[in-house]
Amino acid sequence: MSIKNCNNIMDFRRVARRRLPAPVFHYIDGGADDEWSLGRNTEAFDDYELLPSQLSDVSAMQLKSKLLGQAVDWPVMIAPTGASKLFHRDGESAVVRAADKFNMIYSLSTVSTETIEAVADVGQCPKVFQIYVLKDRGLTREFVARCRDAHYAALCLTVDTPVAGNRERDIVYGVTPKPRLRWNNAMSYLRHPGWLYRVLIGKDLELVNVTGSNAADKIETGVAEYINNQFDRSLTWKDVEWLAGEWDGPLVVKGVQTVADCRNAANSGATAVMLSNHGGRQLESTPAPVDCIAKVADALHDRLEIICDGGVRRGTHIVKALALGANACSIGRGYLYPLAAGGQAGVERGLMLLKGELERTMALLGCDSIEKLGQGYIQHRV
Question: Under CATH, which architecture does the 3-380 domain have?
Answer without folding.
Answer: Alpha-Beta Barrel (3.20)
